[in-house]
Amino acid sequence: MKASRNGKTGLDLIHDPVLNKNTAFTREEREKYGLLGLLPAVVESLDQQVQRVLMQLTHKHSDMDRFVYLTGLLDTNETLFYKVIMSDPTRFLPIVYDPTIGEACLKFGHIYRRSRGMYLSIAHRGSVSKVLADWPDKDVRFICVTNGGRILGLGDIGANGMGIPIGKLQLYTGAAGVPPAHLLPLFLDAGTNNEQLLEDPLYLGIRQKRPPTEELYPFVDEFVAAVQERYPDCCIHFEDWTGSDAVHLLARYRDKVCCYNDDIQGTAGITLAGLINALKIKGGSLKDETIFFAGAGSAGIGLADLLVSEMVSEGLAEEEARSRIWMYDVNGLLQSERDDLFDFQRKYAHKHAPTRDLTTAIKSVKPTTLIGVSTVGGLFTRSVVEAMAEINDRPVVFALSNPTDHAECTAEQAYQWTKGRAIFAAGVQFPPVDYAGETYRAGQANNLYIFPAVAMAIYATRAKRVTDDMFIEAAKAVADQVPDKLLSQGTLFPPQSDILETSVKTAARVAKTVFDAGLAQVPQPADLEDFVRKHLYDASYPELD
Ligand SMILES: O=C([O-])CC(=O)C(=O)O
Ligand SMILES: [Mg+2]
């Protein structure tokens, strides 16, 4: 009997999720690797196996059950898992990702079956590098890392937040074809302040409160240094940290190592794409907009900073650009007299009387665009949305918080309350809305259009650093790929059914930005799209020798 390329034969080969083909092992392979008798008689194609999975999924009663089933499939047959989700992204992205992932994270410790990725705990301080070396793969190119501090709009859910790095990296592959062999989800466990979880007997993380920043940041420093040492070509993707940690950690590392924060830069990118297309619909240019953020955390600040740089490139002075951006948080409008603001929020606090009422603030500031990054479901009440419609002929309203019950308002509310005049987008997918004889199709302003494509560009070019320009270019590329017909129905983003194609084109444009900035570590090819295609993961069975 011959051994496969990783030395495995027989049951060990069947139990290896990367090499397993299950009923698709050929007769020759069964003979060669000692599989005869371990499999049913039939030899099936990957497509036939997909049919069986689809059939089994129809018998599940909820997307949560489908999520658990698909996780099990990934644990046993990676190729089949990606073949299934890439066969119908519109159907499967909402199951492996938002909104189902939100519920999956809340229940993570309860539905947990098998470990995936790595868990580094603050108890490992001083030996993080040694513990990281337990990971068997030699060529890790991306680590998506969270500490569970602010998962989606769900707040601090500690180790249950591990669902997010796992899901985000599945989107690298499913939405942009980054090969899964190079991806490592990682949970940096420094405890949780979530009392309910600390008391849950099935909670999976360390049972202690979060440490102060002075203890957390040296731990993150040690982790970042350990990654540099073991995987010098690895890009660190920070995800779902609390707002202030997100902003401070990105500032700490962005000029020193290859890293980015998706909540800051990816969310900013997709929202910029939405704004570019909203302006195509209503006319005008970004520099003439007044933008009001409900929520002043990492997503709001990241987007505000990106908008300021775009407005400056359209000719505004930086101070003037900042004056067009207003923010509002739990304590009301950010204004110059407030003494409870972080350094990075202060630049968006303008002279204004204090107000703690959102409608009053909107009526006074008169924004053209309202962006919800508050995590507060229903924050955009009828009076808020009607105020936007009074001020603007075509009010731009983006309700970006997720999962679904955290959205600031629904698509139906936005269209009804503005009598169909809103240019609306949400962080989750809402169904089409029929209003006064028209059908409106709100697009999903989700960073899944941005970060997987940016990651593909980083992967293909071996980029040394990640810059805001890469996210701005990704935003423009995504905006350019929305067909006119969709724009006329109010959809600001490309269809998810073509997500891989959209990502390839976006990645090619981002790759150009990387080469132009001199940040690539490979020679520049003549045809960038072809170059990206050569790096794509192919969901078909690997050779075993
Ligand atoms: O994951 C998503 O859908 C968007 C996101 O990054 C977040 O909400 O933190
Ligand atoms: Mg996030």
Automatic annotation (TrEMBL):
All residue ranges annotated as the Malic enzyme N-terminal domain in the record: 74-254
Family from the record: Belongs to the malic enzymes family.
Source organism of this protein record: Roseibium sediminicola
Statement: the UniProt record of this protein carries the keyword Transferase: no
Span of domain Malic enzyme NAD-binding: 264-515
Keyword Oxidoreductase applies: yes
The protein's name in its UniProt record: NAD-dependent malic enzyme
PANTHER family assigned to the protein according to its UniProt record, in alphabetical order: MALIC ENZYME-RELATED
Keywords for this protein: Metal-binding, Oxidoreductase
InterPro entries (UniProt xref): Aminoacid_DH-like_N_sf, Malic_N_dom, Malic_N_dom_sf, Malic_NAD-bd, Malic_OxRdtase, NAD(P)-bd_dom_sf
